[in-house]
Amino acid sequence: MAYATVQDMIDRFGERALIDATRDLNQDRDVMDVIRINKVLERASATVDSYLQRRYAVPVRPVQLPVVDATCALARYALCQLADSEPALQIQTARKDALKWLSDIGSGAATLDATAVADTSETWSRVQARPTSIRGNGLW
User: Fold this and answer.
1) Residue 7: CA atoms inside 13 Å, Cβ hemisphere, count?
2) Pairing with 13, which of 19, 23, 34, 112 sits 20 to 30 Å away (CA)?
3) How far is CA 116 from CA 2, 16, 79, 98, in A?
4) In angstroms, rounded to a whole number, what is the distance separating the alpha carbons of residues 79 and 28?
């Protein structure tokens, strides 16, 4: 389940940018490859889930605008990657910002208004469970 739609991509980046990013040489100049965009959105959504699943039930419901923005930024980067060139600096920066925000969500520095997952693993908070040192100074 993708967090963003083709229309979300058009709203953020414009139809012309998506046509240019998805058009093959043998296609009409004014047709975007909607199938390719949807595949990239699915992969970007899976990446978003990989960051969020430690703290939230995925897929996140309701889908919040920052999640849509991050998904679109990751998808746009994937669409603009070519074998012989890198995406523009603005696209690279948007991807880095999205990944940073997702990392902040995963670490708890930022939050979402979504259903949190209770961690039941034995290794999640090992640091909190360590006994203090025998010196008594409270530093391990």
Assistant:
1) 0
2) 112
3) 20, 39, 31, 20
4) 18
Instruction: Please write the tens of the pLDDT for every residue from 17-47.
Output: 999 888 776 777 788 999 999 999 999 999 9
The residue count for the chain: 140
Q: Does the predicted TM-score (pTM) go above 0.85?
A: no
**Cβ-contact 52, 112 below 8 angstroms:** yes
Task: Report the candidate in 70, 79, 99 with the shortest Cα–Cα distance to residue 2.
Answer: 70
Expressed in angstroms, the distance from the first to the final Cα of the chain is 44
Nearest in space to 121 (alpha carbons), one of 71, 58, 72, 54: 54
Tokens of residue 52, six digits:
């969020």
In angstroms, rounded to a whole number, what is the distance separating the alpha carbons of residues 129 and 136? Answer: 16
**In the chain, what are the helix, strand and coil shares in percent, each to the nearest 5?**
55, 5, 45
Residue range 96-109, pLDDT digits in tens: 999 999 999 988 88
CA distance 102 to 97: 9
- Rounded Cα distance between 66 and 22, Å, is 24
